[in-house]
Specification:
By secondary structure, the chain is mostly helical. 64% of the residues lie in helices and 0% in strands. The longest helix has 22 residues, at 42-63.
Length: 144
């Protein structure tokens, strides 16, 4: 129960941060990504703040024996860069640049009651479900 409450509180805090920073406004995001045109640098501060918080949290995990609400840390061990990683990053970036949404802000935007983020989230869920239908060997993923 504590883990569920912590996850809910973290999600609410994350969503509130996205709203306050205007990351749920696709126009603001596209303005930030448009470095060749009318560039809006304000989200660079959001990005910098996020990196600073992540860095402090990462350093804190190095000094902890285990997380407060879990048995162990889930720190990635892979360091290789392969075609799947590059392809996924390109696909994510192109999608974000075209519509101004990525998954977190899109879900947070649902609270606005507009159809655009709802359509994006629906398409995202269809894509996630379709990925699950592909046999794991064909997508290069080991079953866990």
């Amino acid at each position: 129960m504590r883990t569920t409450i912590a996850a809910l509180a973290s999600g609410l805090l994350f969503g509130a941060g996205l709203a306050v920073s205007q990351m749920i406004d696709p126009g603001k995001v596209i303005g930030f990504l448009n470095v060749a045109g009318a560039w809006d640098p304000t989200l660079a501060f959001v990005l910098g703040g996020a990196v600073a918080v992540w860095g402090a949290a990462f350093l804190a995990t190095r000094r902890m024996r285990q997380p407060v609400l879990a048995g162990a840390f889930g720190i990635p061990t892979r360091r290789d860069i392969d075609a799947r990683l590059i392809g996924g990053a390109v696909l994510f970036g192109v999608g974000w640049g075209l519509v101004g949404y990525c998954p977190g802000p899109a879900v947070s935007s649902l609270a606005l009651g507009r159809w655009e983020p709802a359509l994006f989230v629906a398409a995202m869920l269809v894509g996630m479900f379709a990925f699950r239908l592909i046999p794991s060997g064909a997508r290069g993923v080991a079953e866990v």
